[in-house]
Amino acid sequence: MILSFHPCFDTDVQVILGDRLLDSVDLQLIRDAKAIILPQTCPQEMYNACSASSAAVFPSYEMRFKYPGKMGQSILFKNFGFLHPGTLRWRSVVEFKKAYPALKEFPHDLPFFIKDDKSHEADGVFLIKDMPSMSRAFDYLGCRERSGLPGFVSQEFIPSEGNVLRAVIIGKRVITYWKRPNRPGQVITTISRNAMIDHDWRPDLLEKGKKQALSLSEKTGIDLAAVDFVFSIADKYPAPFFLEINYYFGRRGLGGSEDYYHLLYQAVREWLGQIGLDPESVSLI
Questions:
Q1: To which H or E segment does residue 75 belong?
Q2: Closest by alpha carbon to 114, among 65, 80, 76, 152?
Q3: What's the pLDDT at 15?
Q4: CB of 178 within 8 A of CB of 164?
Q5: What is the dihedral sign for C-alpha 42, 217, 121, 253?
Q6: C-alpha angle with apex 104: 103 to 110, nearest 5 degrees?
Q7: pLDDT digits over 142-188, tens only?
Q8: Hey, which of 53, 60, 190, 214 would disulfide with 122, CB 3.0 to 4.6 Å?
Q9: Residue 242 three-state SS
């Protein structure tokens, strides 16, 4: 029996949880299943229950929960030997200030980044050039701590000229494109801040990013995520630095939601075939 918790994929049994928790019926279905298709918004409780069963599971979120947030991902990159900007992890603003009490020295050369652990789409990302920018970062992080969301990283600045390469892993396939600044001097580049999507610029670097994303997938089992890379553009042969892994990601660079779900549907079908089950047993709804 194939079990789907994904609202877009119907199969032998489809369960749409919404906001409710798993109940005894759901848990029995998980125990009986040969394969389980998870939603992209899969909570940890659901993943733990499914991964502890004998069923094959897609996508794999083991790394997502083992190495959470930017703090966890910096450990993942280190543990698996992937090139990434020099990164330090901080549990609180107080911990940082104890390490640098006079704030006359910094953990990285200026400029450098401070990034809130759990924020997305460049929220909570600060380019630290001087004490005023540091103070703005600390004010934001202090509010996050008081709301129960502590933790941040400080990170080496890679002179990418604002260009970020995104590699989207969907099953065995990797699709790459650039997020490029729409104005001179823009350093923090995201689609939500009107970055330009470019599928053609620097094809040599697109290929480098694709190879590294495939390596990440092979070494960690990650099979649905968007990986961001930066390059020191002025170098003659720039190397890809892993920046972060996004398990929730926008779809404009993939052609929109409809195109994305067709790509994901194909990945699910290929996965079912690889584990010896019938790809025709699942439909996109």
A1: helix 69-79
A2: 152
A3: 97
A4: yes
A5: negative
A6: 95
A7: 999 999 999 999 999 999 999 999 999 999 999 999 999 887 777 88
A8: 190
A9: strand
